Amino acid sequence: MRLDQISLSRDDKQVLHDINMEWKRGETIALIGANGAGKSSLLKVLATLWKPSSGKLIYPDNTIKQWQKNLGVVFPDSFLYDALTAIENLEFYQKLYGGSDRKRLDSLLQAVRLADVATEKVGTFSKGMRQRLSIARALTHYPSYLLLDEPFDGLDVSSRDIVQNLLLQLKEQKTGYILVSHNLDDAMHLCERALLIDNGEITAESRCTQEAFPSFVEQYHSVLKENNHAVY
Amino acid sequence: MQFIRHTLLILTRDLRVEFRNKSLLLSMVIFALLFQVLLQISFDAKTEAMQELAPGVLWLPIILAAMLGFSKYGSVEKENDAFAGILISPIDKGSLYLGKLIGNNLFVLIVIATSAPTFFLFLKQPFPNSIGLLIVTLLLGSWGFVAIGVFFSTLAQSSSITELLVPIMIFPLAVPLFLACIQLTEMALFPSIGLGQSIWLLLLIAYNILFTIIPLFLFDLLLEV
Ligand SMILES: Nc1ncnc2c1ncn2[C@@H]1O[C@H](COP(=O)(O)OP(=O)(O)OP(=O)(O)O)[C@@H](O)[C@H]1O
Ligand SMILES: [Mg+2]
C-alpha cells in the first residue's frame, strides 16, 4: 500500500498535507501525534471512508474492492449493532466479507474473552466489552492489513494485556497493522516502525529499536511542547 | 449470487433489528390508520364529494407513513457509526440499496394491508370498480415511492445533506408517480370511461423500472470514495 502526495481538506480546513508513506504487507507501524494532528483522518483515508482531496492511493492489488477485502478496521466507533447479540454482530460482518465460518467466530470470542456473553445483546455491553468485540469484529475475515485507532481506549489492565498479546500474535503471523496510540511504550513494543504526525504532516520516522526510538520520543515531546505554547 | 446474498444479509439484519425493537412498523401502521380517520372526519365525506377526494384519502396516509419509515428505517446504522462499517466493506453497495428497498417496501405493504381495508370497511366506501387495477396501483405506487425514498435517505446518510432535506428532494421527483397513482386509483375505485388508463399504467411501470435500476448501478459509484 502506498500513499502518494495525499492531502485532505474537511470543511475548508486542510487536515492532511502531502502525506507520502509506504505500508508493506505484514508491516506494523505506530502512528504518533498530538490531539488533532490528523491521525484518525489518515486512517479514514486508508480505510476508503474519506476521499483525499488530492494525491493518489496505490493499492497492493490495484483494486479498491480487493483492498477493502484485505482490510480490518478498529475505529473509536465500534460499528456494532446494539440490538443484535455479540455473535450475531460477528456473523453479520463475516458474511459482509463473504465468509461463513462459525468456528472462527467462536475462537475470536474466546480470544477477546467474550465467549460467555456471546448471546447477549451488545446494547448491554460496557465500553471495554464493546471495544474488545469491535476488535474481534475487525478480524472475522482474516484481514492482512489492520487499522487500529486507539484500540486500548477504555480497556482495563487485564483487557489491555489480552489485546496486546493478540496484536503480538498477529504481528507474528505477518498481519500488518497501523496502530494509533498515545502510549509510546505500546508503540515501541508492538510495532516495527513509528511515524510522527504533526499538523497533518509526517515530520519524523524511526525504527522502534532501543537505539533509534529515544530520539523519536524527544521529537514527539518537543512537538507537544510547541503545541502547548501555541495554546497558552 | 454474491449480490443476492448481500441483499438478503442487509434485509435480514434490518428485519431482525426491527422485530427486536418493534417500534417502527407499529407506529407506521397506527399513524396511517389514525391519519385516515382524521381525513375522513375533516372532509365529513359526502358521497358525491368523495369521488374527488377518495384517491387522496387512500394514498395520503400511506405516503406519509412511508416517509416516517424512510427517516427511521436506516437508523440502526447510525448507532456506533455502523454505516461506516458497511461503506468500507467490499460489498457492491447496490445490494445495500436493494436490501433496504425490499425491507422498507415490506413495511409499507403492511401499512397498505391494514389501511386499505379500513378505507373500505369503516369509512363505508363502495366496493372498488376494479379491484385488480387498485391492487396493481398500490403495489407499483408504493414500490416506486419507497425506491426514491430509500435512494435519497441513504445518500443523505453518507453525505453532508441533512435528513431534513430528504422530503424536499423526494416530493418533486415523486410528482409523476403521485399523478399516475391518483389517476389510476380513481379509475379503479369508480366506474369511468377509463380514458388513458394504459398510459398512466405505462408511466407508473417506467417510473418503477427507472428508479429501481438507476440507483442499483449508481449506488456503488456514489458511495464509493
Ligand atoms: N469531520 C470533520 N470536519 C472538519 N474537520 C475535521 C473533521 N474531522 C476531523 N477534523 C479536523 O481534522 C483535524 C485532525 O483530526 P483527527 O481526528 O484526525 O485528529 P487525531 O490526530 O485523531 O486526534 P486525537 O488524538 O484527538 O484522536 C482536527 O483539527 C479536526 O478539527
Ligand atoms: Mg483520533
Task: Please render the helix and strand layout as text.
The complex is a heterodimer of chains A (232) and B (225).
Chain A: E1 2-10, E2 13-22, E3 28-32, H1 39-46, E4 54-58, H2 64-69, E5 71-74, H3 86-96, H4 102-111, H5 127-139, E6 145-149, H6 157-172, E7 176-180, H7 184-190, E8 193-198, E9 201-207, H8 213-231
Parallel strand pairs in A: 3-7, 3-8, 5-6, 6-7
Antiparallel strand pairs in A: 1-2, 1-4, 8-9
Helix pairs in contact in A: 3-4, 3-5
Chain B: H1 2-21, H2 24-43, H3 47-73, H4 82-87, H5 93-121, H6 131-158, H7 166-189, H8 197-223
Give your account of this protein's structure.
The complex is a heterodimer of chains A (232) and B (225). Chain A is an alpha/beta fold. Chain A has eight helices and nine strands. Chain A has helices spanning 39-46, 64-69, 86-96, 102-111, 127-139, 157-172, 184-190, 213-231, and strands at 2-10, 13-22, 28-32, 54-58, 71-74, 145-149, 176-180, 193-198, 201-207. In chain A, the strands form two sheets. Chain A has a six-stranded mixed sheet, with helices on both faces. Chain A has a three-stranded antiparallel sheet with strand order 2-1-4, covered by helices on one side. In chain A, helix 3 crosses helix 4 (102-111). The longest helix of chain A has 19 residues, at 213-231. Chain B has one domain. Chain B has helices at residues 2-21, 24-43, 47-73, 82-87, 93-121, 131-158, 166-189, 197-223. In chain B, helix 3 (47-73) runs parallel beside helix 6 (131-158). Chain B is globular. Chain B starts with a helix and ends with a helix. The chains are: A alpha/beta (232), B mainly alpha (225). Chains A and B meet through helix 2 and helix 3 of A and helix 1 and helix 4 of B. Chain B: Pfam families: CcmB. Chain B: It comes from Aquibacillus salsiterrae. Chain B: It is found in: Membrane. Chain B: Its main location: membrane.
